[in-house]
């Protein structure tokens, strides 16, 4: 590809990025300030045009600057040396892991027994009462419940059980972060980069929150990060990877565990496998290097082994998940999680247009969601409405629900779009203040200014801080606006900012290289593993609200994407 054609490709990519980000900024601002998008606003259109031009030029400029400085930065990084303690920390994976754990321990002691929040009590109660549902991943329910209940039976303390679980989770997640740091070394990252990554994983508040939080989201995202690392190793050399049974089994194990800790991980993984296999079949010339001495039949055999590994992962998840459900006699009658967006959309129509709805349509709607339930509609959160959804009525007659849904979709399409945007725009608008639980009273406080993080200790645990100053810091970060009100700094805590920054780097890597040849096409192929977290991010758009917990993977991926993009 000629230099002129490459420059045009970069300009087009920068324009597309600028176009998308400007839409996110304009619409996101409207949603944040007025709770709806004004699709016909002339003022908004003017801002959109100006922002598109500015962001496009800025993006192209940043890419050009990276082109000029990239090699110098990398060489300086690789040549840099450290001695003493820092060198010791990075000399062995065990030392790196211990360092990460030591960095986390003051926070764990400060918020002792840990962040026991986000359905933690519900999961433990399932173990205590032996009444299980498939609403929460059963593997996590058992891990958390057995730890808390088991230690309580021995010691009489629920806090010790929570603390033990946090220690185990911290050890597992820091082991994954250690794997990521040593993978960066394999990719050529120098000691400065790896020291920065150790500090990032061990000290950055948003990451530490979920390292020490009982919700399944931390482990789910950690195993997703591990899966992405193995997939990137796979993409580097498929033949060598498939010849290493230890790596193949590790890929299967990490993928299975990822899906077992969140249901949406299964849907994302299945779609990813279809895409990955399709690309490896259609673009097989970039999957195997030209220097590969294996015969064509050998490639085909390797490809079949890869497909088999993916299928084993999916089947293994299904068997374990179903086996746990059967063994625990878990109730699987809930439908509202799959209907989050439709439920919120019809609720918004009722909220804004109830006077225009015929009585017969209201009666149909009341069959699924009571009038009282509909009165609790809140734009940024569908959880309350979902509590009132009648699963039994839906099982008996789902057709009436969908007939009503599509009838009002035709009549109020903008209302449907706004209903969906209001529960998801925090994932793509960097200026969103995460306060979706405003007014909700929980065990120890009422959300007022922010619901960035749950912070509290749900019953039967209680907060017994051993380092109050750290406890106060994390309370401020969690339930006060604090960092979300500080210009620039707030972006480091905003999920949408991570999404757009990482997308910019990936686009740079795919279209900003100096020349397109087979080697760079193989580099582009190595980014296919990032489709997995992107698909998980897409499933979060269909969730009940926008919270950091659902997309914490964006924080975990940052060092990996920076290194891979700038190689």
Could you describe the 3D structure shown?
This protein has 567 residues and is an all-alpha fold. Among the domains are: 3-79, no CATH class; 219-332, no CATH class; 340-411, no CATH class. It has helices at 3-34, 42-79, 85-89, 93-110, 120-129, 138-155, 158-186, 191-203, 205-211, 216-236, 238-243, 245-261, 263-282, 284-287, 296-327, 340-353, 359-368, 371-374, 383-387, 391-396, 398-411, 413-422, 468-479, 495-511, 518-525, 531-540, 553-565. Helix 4 packs parallel to helix 8 (191-203), helix 6 packs across helix 7 (158-186) and helix 24 packs parallel to helix 27 (553-565). The protein is globular and about 70 Å long.
List the helices and strands and how they pair.
Layout: H1 3-34, H2 42-79, H3 85-89, H4 93-110, H5 120-129, H6 138-155, H7 158-186, H8 191-203, H9 205-211, H10 216-236, H11 238-243, H12 245-261, H13 263-282, H14 284-287, H15 296-327, H16 340-353, H17 359-368, H18 371-374, H19 383-387, H20 391-396, H21 398-411, H22 413-422, H23 468-479, H24 495-511, H25 518-525, H26 531-540, H27 553-565
Helix pairs in contact: 1-2, 1-24, 4-7, 4-8, 5-6, 6-7, 7-8, 7-10, 10-12, 12-13, 12-15, 13-15, 13-26, 16-22, 24-27
């Amino acid at each position: 590809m000629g230099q002129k054609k490459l420059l045009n490709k970069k300009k087009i990519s920068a324009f597309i990025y600028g176009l998308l980000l400007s839409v996110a900024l304009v619409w996101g601002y409207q949603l944040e300030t007025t709770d709806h998008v004004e699709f016909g606003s002339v003022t908004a259109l003017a801002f959109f045009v100006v922002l598109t031009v500015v962001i496009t030029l800025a993006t192209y400029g940043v890419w050009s600057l990276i082109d000029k400085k990239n090699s110098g930065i990398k060489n300086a990084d690789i040549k840099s040396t450290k001695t003493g303690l820092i060198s010791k920390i990075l000399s062995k994976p065990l030392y790196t892991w211990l360092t990460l754990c030591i960095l986390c321990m003051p926070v764990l002691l400060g918020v002792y027994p840990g962040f026991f929040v986000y359905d933690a009590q519900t999961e433990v109660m399932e173990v205590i009462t032996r009444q299980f549902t498939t609403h929460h991943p059963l593997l996590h329910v058992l891990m958390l419940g057995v730890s808390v209940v088991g230690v309580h039976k021995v010691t009489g303390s629920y806090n010790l059980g929570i603390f033990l679980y946090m220690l185990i989770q911290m050890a597992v997640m820091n082991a994954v972060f250690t794997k990521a740091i040593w993978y960066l070394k394999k990719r050529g990252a120098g000691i400065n980069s790896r020291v920065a990554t150790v500090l990032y994983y061990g000290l950055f508040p948003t990451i530490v929150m979920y390292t020490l939080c009982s919700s399944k989201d931390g482990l789910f995202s950690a195993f997703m990060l591990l899966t992405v690392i193995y997939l990137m190793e796979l993409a580097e050399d498929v033949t060598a990877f498939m010849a290493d049974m230890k790596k193949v089994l590790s890929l299967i194990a990490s993928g299975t565990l990822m899906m077992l800790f969140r249901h949406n991980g299964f849907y994302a993984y299945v779609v990813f496998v279809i895409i990955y296999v399709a690309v490896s079949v259609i673009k097989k010339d970039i999957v195997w290097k030209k220097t590969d001495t294996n015969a064509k039949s050998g490639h085909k055999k390797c490809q079949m082994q890869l497909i088999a590994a993916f299928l084993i992962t999916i089947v293994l998840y299904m068997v374990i998940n179903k086996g746990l459900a059967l063994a625990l006699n878990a109730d699987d009658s809930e439908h509202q999680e799959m209907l989050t967006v439709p439920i919120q959309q019809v609720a918004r129509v009722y909220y804004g247009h109830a006077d225009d709805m015929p009585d017969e349509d209201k009666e149909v709607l009341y069959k699924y969601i009571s009038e009282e339930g509909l009165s609790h509609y809140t734009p940024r959160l569908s959880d309350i409405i979902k509590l009132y959804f009648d699963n039994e009525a839906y099982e008996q007659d789902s057709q009436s629900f969908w007939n009503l849904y599509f009838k009002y979709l035709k009549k109020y399409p903008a209302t449907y779009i706004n209903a969906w945007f209001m529960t998801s725009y925090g994932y793509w608008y960097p200026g969103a203040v995460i306060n979706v639980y405003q007014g909700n009273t929980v065990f120890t406080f009422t959300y007022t200014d922010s619901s960035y993080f749950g912070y509290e200790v749900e019953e039967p645990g209680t907060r017994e801080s051993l380092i109050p100053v750290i406890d106060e810091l994390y309370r401020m970060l969690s339930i006060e606006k604090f960092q979300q009100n500080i210009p620039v700094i707030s972006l480091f805590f905003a999920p949408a900012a991570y999404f757009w920054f990482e997308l910019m780097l990936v686009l740079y890597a795919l279209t900003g290289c100096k020349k397109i040849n087979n080697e760079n096409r193989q580099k582009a192929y190595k980014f296919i593993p990032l489709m997995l977290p992107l698909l998980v991010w897409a499933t979060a758009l269909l969730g009940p609200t926008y919270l950091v917990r659902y997309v914490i993977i964006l924080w975990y991926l940052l060092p990996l994407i920076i290194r891979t993009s700038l190689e």
